[in-house]
Amino acid sequence: MVPKIPTIVPVVALALIDDAGRVLMQQRRIGKAHGGLWEFPGGKVEAGESLVGALVREIAEELGIAVPPDALEPLSFAASPADPHVVLLYTCRRWRGDPCCLEGEAIGWFAADALAGLAMPPLDVPLARVVKELIDRCK
Q: Whole-structure pTM over 0.85, yes or no?
């Protein structure tokens, strides 16, 4: 018998970084998987979408801002053998509009040092460490 290969579910996420080096995080809706935990905003890539196209769409839907595709820089990814999701994290330091919470419980700006203290879904934890390292290098 041939072993079943699990389906990979690509998820794009964004570390939006302001001029003070703070990162915007979104709290997941209560009642959803990982409800109440803080995460990088983003979502699943739809069939036929590019990664960048999906991220631009997701950020507009979740935060009400426009991120220029050329401002998105790939940073890292996270995956687990027990989870079909692969989170592909990008950074962005320029956007149009003021972020607002359209789909989560809340949003907040956090200093890089504060990220480790947030309760997060498992795949966001290693990504938060990478974001903190990036911000620390840019100081």
A: yes
CA 74 – CA 50 distance, rounded (Å): 13
**Per-residue CA distances from 64 to 1, 18, 39, 41 (Å):** 49, 16, 17, 12
Q: Considering only CA atoms, give the Rg of the chain.
A: 15
Domain ranges of the chain: 9-137
The CATH superfamily label for domain 9-137 reads: Nucleoside Triphosphate Pyrophosphohydrolase (3.90.79.10)
31-46 per-position pLDDT tens digit:
888 889 999 999 999 9
> Which burial class, exposed, middle or buried, applies to 118 when counting CB atoms under 10 A from its CB (0-12, 13-18, 19+)?
middle
